[in-house]
Amino acid sequence: MSLSLVLALVWALAANVLAMIPSKDNHWTRAYILIGIGIPLLGYVTYENGPWIGLLVLAAGMSVLRWPVRYLLRWVRRQVGQEKA
Questions:
Q1: What's this model's pTM, rounded to 2 decimal places?
Q2: Cα 15 to chain center, whole Å?
Q3: pLDDT tens digit string along 1-60?
Q4: Around 83, how many Cα atoms within 13 Å sit in the side-chain half-sphere?
Q5: 3-state secondary structure the chain
Q6: How many CB atoms are closer than 10 A to CB 15?
């Protein structure tokens, strides 16, 4: 197993542990930190293991951080909807 996949698994484990700890801001600070670490890590995984494994790791990360992804999609839809008017 490559170093990048080991780091991705450690990231996923840390994300799950952080999700179990109570938070006053609904885990948003932790989500931003995980996103900041996860994006370069995703690039590293894709570089070492190819695009298909990179897509699998992306899907796994999106399943862990599903609320930021939902809010991003809602924001994008609003921005696209405003351009049509």
A1: 0.84
A2: 10
A3: 899 999 999 999 999 999 999 989 888 899 999 999 999 999 999 999 999 999 999 999
A4: 6
A5: CCHHHHHHHHHHHHHHHHHHCCCCCCCHHHHHHHHHHHHHHHHHHHHHHCHHHHHHHHHHHHHHCHHHHHHHHHHHHHHHHHHHC
A6: 20
Q: Report whether 11 contacts 37 (CB < 8 A).
A: yes
Say how far apart CA 37 and CA 22 lie, in whole Å. 21
Q: Are 15 and 65 in contact (CB under 8 A)?
A: yes
Residue length of the chain: 85
